[in-house]
Amino acid sequence: MIKSPLTEVNNYLIKQLPTATAFLNTKLEVVYASDTWIDYFNFGNRNVFGKKILDLFEKTTRNWEKTLKDCLKGKNRGPGMEHYVDSEKKDRWFEWTNIPWYDENENVIGVIIQTKDITRKVSNELEFEKLQILHDKKSEIAKIGSWNFDLASQKLSWCKMTKKIHEVPLDFVPDIETGINFYKQGHSRNTISLAVERAMSQGAPWNEKLQIVTAKGNEKWVIAAGKPLFKNNELVGILGTFQDIDDQVQAEMKIRESERLLRTLIDNLPLNVFIKDRDSKKILVNKAECDFLGVKHPKQVLGKDDFDLYPKKTAQESRNEDIKVMNSLKPVLGKETICEKKDGQITTFLTSKIPLVGNDGIANGLIGISLDISNIKQKEEELRDLIDVTALQNKKLVNFAHIVSHNLRSHSANFSMLLDFLVNEKCGKEKENLINMLVEASDNLLDTLENLNEVVAINTNTNLNKKPVVLNDMVKKVTKNLNAFLLNNNAKIVNTISDDMRINVVPAYLESILMNFITNSVKYKEPTRNPIIRLHATKNEGQTLLEISDNGLGIDMKKYGDKLFGMYKTFHEHKDARGIGLYITKNQIEAMNGKVMVCSEVGKGSIFKIYFNERN
Amino acid sequence: MREINSIYIIDDDPITVFGIKKMLGSVVHGGVVHSFANGKLAIDAIRDTTSKNAEIPEVIFLDINMPIMDGWQFLEEFIQLSLPQKVRINIITSSIDSADIEKWEHYRLRSKHVITFNNKPIKKEKIDRITKVA
Fold first, then answer.
1. Does A560 reach chain B within 8 Å, measured CB to CB?
2. Are residues A469 and A608 in the same domain?
3. Which ranges of chain B does DSSP label H, i.e. alpha helix?
4. Which of A111, A538, B19, B37 could form a disulfide with A71 if both were Cys (CB 3.0 to 4.6 A apart)?
């Protein structure tokens, strides 16, 4: 039995134990307890002594009771862990050490319980576990592995992810040499060797984008980073990360490749391609567009808008169109547009503008594609001109054919009729009369043939003999030749043509034209007044306009306008009217690529406008 | 031989006028044949005649290509005259232009008068056939 003084002493000593300790008797009642133990469990003033331990704790495991009972039998069960919720409802963890309490005779007289609060340890462990999981997950998602090289043991260890990236089994044991040999021969292996060497010798960290060849022979892009570890300024090892960036690199390379493809494509398209932002500023231009704008590098036009590049009017039209396309989201396709540059150069384009629609359904720019069709346009125009000329010539030809056929037919009809009469005529006098008529018909036919011949000659000689002529020289020559005729008719010529006016013509035609118009003006004078003929000439864009106006009879344009220049058309009762002059004149003008127009009013006079074309 | 009171020949070619006149001599008898060198002279004569209530021609031989006023212009003015009787107009031309045939159709259908289209040369038999009161 324990003696009382001893108990006191024991009690006092135990009370002061720094470790929370309780002594239980064989009935598992608390005999002694350190203050720390009482504090631990917040027993405070509550008398714990003599109480059964299992009654002091509300929630305990059956396991503990068994452990305690085992202790009483002399069995040492080692430490156990207990969880309980304290008065503040906090999770707490304890480590219990239950050991048998022996007396001097090695008899078990109770149980000694030592308690350690391991709440922090446990929560740290949990936290660590969480961090570990998080870290594993992160490394799995980011494909970042780690490794560690211990200098002392020369041991290199790889984490799971690092092994996975290298495509080696999890039990693979790397060393520094095998590690380096995974890097692709050449740049990658050289770089890593140098980096490791520098880390060892100078303590320099590294971070490199390199290629490895995995155990399965696959090439992969990785970011390998290493950081030397020091302890007391001594290198103890290297810690590093190892990231698989193959997917990113492959994707990047693919993007770069498709960008290059796209760039090559748009630069070599025979089309002007550009992309504009919402403010119509250029954010992409291809080579053709650069060439068109006369710049060497896209940089020179990027960020500029049409107002920087084109005259205001062109720019505003383009901007309006851009806004329309971006607001309506409806593309403009293959629209013929005329683009004037600041230097005045005009280009015809087939332009398409396609809105660039963002995820929000709003256009944040547009793609423009322009095809320069200036050449085609010009060809088209030339072709149209050619068609016009051909059509005109064809018309003239048909017209001429009709004239020929009509004239020859009328003569031959007369011959046929007269000969028919002659064959059946018995009267000698009448026969003679018919023969005279036949002679007359024959003369008429010859005249007609001569006229037709003249027309044919004009139309076949065309431009071969065009040369510059001083217009006034020719006017003087003609008026000199007509001097007597003009004097007889009291005609006056008012010439306002400047002496340096030169025109490119067939001289003989010009002479004939002047002769004809001047003669006509006098011939068809208004009987009550003296004829005045005004000559005036102006030059405009490769064309010379000669105006010959008179104060003569004038012509009823409504009635005769379409026939004025026809063959054998006469409009005035004049003994000399043959109906051939104006026809020939018109042919001569047209043969020189010119044209003639007329304004006239009956009783007032006529103005003939003759356009001479300088080109051939 | 039939009787026709008044015949007009409108043609600027004296040989044709001579020929038609000569052939008419053996087809009709009596009556008067007038010739005009263009449409203007003829239409003026017709207007003059109607104003005097004198006899207007029963048959007209009409050329197309003439100065001052051609055959078509003459027809245009003629069909607008309000004449009580039908007149026979024989177009005599050397033209085989389809445009002229179309014009003839145009006037023929627009007019109550008898209008025929005849190509030169004209034979006596033809003159015989087309020289009658409409």
1. no
2. yes
3. 14-25, 39-51, 71-78, 98-110, 124-130
4. A111
Residues A159 and A238 in one domain: yes
In a domain, A537, yes or no: yes
**β-pairing verdict for A206-213 and A219-231:** antiparallel
Q: Are residues A358 and A391 in the same domain?
A: no
Boundary (domain end) residue, out of A329, A351, A372: A372
Total tally of structural domains belonging to chain A: 5
Task: Considering only residues A389 and B44, tell me which one the structure prediction assigns the higher pLDDT.
Answer: B44
In a domain, A126, yes or no: no
Average pLDDT over residues B89-109: 89
| Half-sphere exposure of residue A455: CA atoms within 13 angstroms, side-chain side | 24
**Strand B59-62 versus strand B88-93 pairing type:** parallel
pLDDT (tens digit per residue) in A502-516: 998 888 889 989 998
**A13 and A148 fall within a common domain:** no
The Cα B133–Cα B89 span in angstroms is: 10
Q: Is A421 close to B96, i.e. CB distance below 8 A?
A: no
Task: Clarify whether residues A534 and A470 are in a common domain.
Answer: yes
Q: Which two tokens stand for residue A135?
A: 């870290």
Residue A440 at interface with chain B, using a CB cutoff of 8 Å:
yes
* Among A285, A293, A354, residue whose Cα is nearest residue A321: A354
Residue A309: pLDDT over 50: yes
Query: In sequence order, what are the residues at sequence separation of 6 or more whose Cβ sits closer than 8 angstroms to the Cβ of residue A22?
Result: A30, A32, A33, A34, A37, A53, A112, A113, A115
Picking from A316, A350, A372, the residue at the C-terminal end of a domain is A372
Q: Which residue has the higher pLDDT, A593 or A194?
A: A194
Nearest to A148 by CA among A176, A168, A181: A176
Nearest to A571 among B13, B67, B95 (CB): B67
Is A421 in Cβ contact with B94 (below 8 Å)? no
B67 closest CB neighbour out of A407, A413, A569: A569
Mean pLDDT (whole number) for A102-122: 85
**Which residues, other chains included, contact A318 with Cβ-Cβ below 8 Å and sequence gap of 6+?**
A280, A306, A310
CATH number among 3.90.550.10, 3.40.50.2300, 3.30.230.10, 1.10.3720.10, domain B2-130: 3.40.50.2300
A417 touching B, CB under 8 A? yes
- A501 and A570 part of one domain: yes
Q: What is the pLDDT of residue A363?
A: 92
Amino acid at A51: K
A574 in contact with B, Cβ within 8 Å: no
Q: Please report which confidence band the pLDDT of residue A568 belongs to, taking 50, 70 and 90 as the band edges.
A: low
The secondary structure of residue A497, as a DSSP letter, is: -
Q: Are residues A155 and A295 in the same domain?
A: no
- Contact with chain B for residue A570, Cβ under 8 A: yes
**Residue A255 included in any domain:** no
Helix (H), strand (E), coil (C) string for A183-244: ECCCHHHHHHHHHHHHHHHHCCCEEEEEEEECCCCCEEEEEEEEEEEEECCEEEEEEEEEEE
Domain that holds residue A38: 4-117
Residue position matching structure tokens 């002493």: A9
Per the structure block, which two tokens stand in for A421?
């009469």
ipTM of the complex: 0.86
d(CA A564, CA A570): 8
Task: Report the amino acid identity of residue A517.
Answer: F
Are A358 and A258 a contacting pair, CB within 8 Å? no
A202 burial level (CB within 10 Å; 0-12, 13-18, 19+): exposed
Residue A227 sits in the same domain as residue A157: yes
Containing A591, the helix (H) or strand (E) segment is helix A581-591
Q: Which residue of A has its CA nearest to B119?
A: A413
Q: How far does Cα A38 stand from its chain's mean position?
A: 82
Q: Is A402 on the interface with B (CB under 8 A)?
A: yes
